[in-house]
Design goal:
By secondary structure, this protein is of the alpha/beta class. The chain has a single domain, classed as TIM Barrel (Alpha-Beta Barrel). Helix content is 28%, strand content 17%. A 12-stranded mixed sheet has the order 7-8-9-6-5-4-3-2-1-10-11-12. β7 and β8 form a beta hairpin. The longest helix has 14 residues. It starts with 25 loop residues before the first strand and ends with a helix. The structure holds S-adenosylmethionine and iron/sulfur cluster.
């Protein structure tokens, strides 16, 4: 039987297929550039944040996300900055959950530093969130303070517990940092797997000026993996969450361990995602400067046609990949924007 297409790919209301044949089905939305932490690899201590007037309203964010869902986005992740510090963020999540009810959207999720989770976990579950990522680089309270500058570990641990109690599956994201937490990876893995949480290790990426030198932080995950093999048996598994992590099953713990390796392993060939900032700028690649403004077409008319056309035009420019490098010869950030702009 012939395959029937309702929409031509790349057409005004159709699916988003980029020039390399990759279908865009995953949208990450940075709902704020603000944060209640100042992680050393992410932000400088004194950050200048966007003036409030430049931000999209929650209604505008909902409208834009809805256009993306109509164009084939199946997975929506809210991030930031810290998504849970944006005022009234639960109303956006509640509104977006209508797309889960219709089945148009398969997953609505967030990436959070966990500081506000104790307060919001129940609401998140009620609004259809079933899994979330919590960023946690150390289980040592003093080191946690050092790395986040402003954070309180006990609040994050309470948040993780509240999320699990509410029925949310929690995945811990740990940025692997040389001379900081490399000796804690085994303890983190055992802690996560002991509580039925996946752990994903992330390499530092050269985004934005921070108060320091990134070559001192960079720890290749190929090396971490080799060290872990002295202690654990790991089996590659085809598990996918829609993101770039490659997973193994750790035999001794029975749990899953993911690796996100933008620097040692280029993950671009299967890229299915784009990133929207809180000002309505669409980045087609985390590692490239090219972007499209969706705020102007969004505000130019009440209908969504202009914005749908602007999205198609942007997707037609999605680049093949990034070329991050961290070494002594490339000591500047590959990109001037911070991770808190695009949300990782
Ligand atoms: N505030 C939330 C959080 O920390 O989970 C969401 C935004 S944060 C920018 C998203 C993720 O990016 C976090 O897991 C964080 O550790 C990671 N991240 C931030 N800067 C990074 C960098 N330069 N390289 C690698 N990961 C980074
Ligand atoms: Fe905030 Fe997340 Fe960046 Fe840390 S990584 S400063 S919690 S946005």
């Amino acid at each position: 039987m012939d395959h029937i297409r309702l929409h031509e790919p790349g057409g005004d209301s159709g699916e988003m297929i980029d020039p390399f044949g990759r279908q865009v089905s995953y949208l990450r939305v940075s709902v704020t550039d603000r944060c209640d932490f100042r992680c050393v690899y992410c932000m400088a201590e004194n950050m200048t944040f966007l003036p409030k007037r430049d931000l999209l309203t929650l209604e505008e964010l909902d409208r834009l996300c809805t256009v993306f869902v109509e164009k084939g986005v199946k997975k929506l992740r809210l991030t930031g900055g810290e998504p849970l510090v944006r005022r009234n963020i639960m109303s956006l999540i509640e509104n977006l959950s209508r797309h889960l009810k219709t089945g148009a959207l398969e997953e609505l999720t967030i990436t959070t530093n966990g500081s506000q989770l104790a307060r919001f976990a129940g609401d998140l579950y009620r609004h259809g969130v079933r899994r979330l990522n919590v960023s946690l680089d150390t289980l040592d309270a003093r080191k946690f303070k050092d790395i986040t500058r402003w954070g309180d570990l006990s609040k994050v641990l309470d948040g993780v517990k509240a999320a699990q109690d509410a029925g949310l599956a929690v995945k811990i994201n740990m940025v692997a940092l040389k001379n900081f937490n490399e000796d804690e990876i085994v303890a983190m893995l055992e802690w996560c797997h002991g509580q039925d949480m996946d752990l994903t290790l992330i390499e530092t990426m050269p985004l934005g000026d921070i108060d320091g030198d990134r070559t001192d932080q960079y720890l290749p995950l190929s090396q971490v993996r080799a060290n872990l093999l002295d202690r654990f048996e790991m089996e590659d598994i085809p598990y996918k969450t829609g993101g770039p992590a490659r997973y193994v099953r750790v035999k001794q713990t029975g749990g899953r361990l993911g690796f996100i390796t933008p620097l040692t392993h280029n993950f671009c060939e299967s890229c299915n995602r784009v990133r929207l900032t809180c000002t309505g700028t669409l980045y087609m690649c985390l590692g490239q400067e090219d972007a499209a403004d969706l705020r102007a077409p969004l505000r130019a008319s009440e209908g969504n046609q202009l914005v749908a056309t602007a999205i198609d035009e942007a997707i037609s420019r999605k680049p093949k990949g990034h070329d991050f490098v961290i070494d002594r010869a490339h000591n500047r950030p590959a990109l001037t924007r911070h991770m808190s702009v695009t949300g990782g």
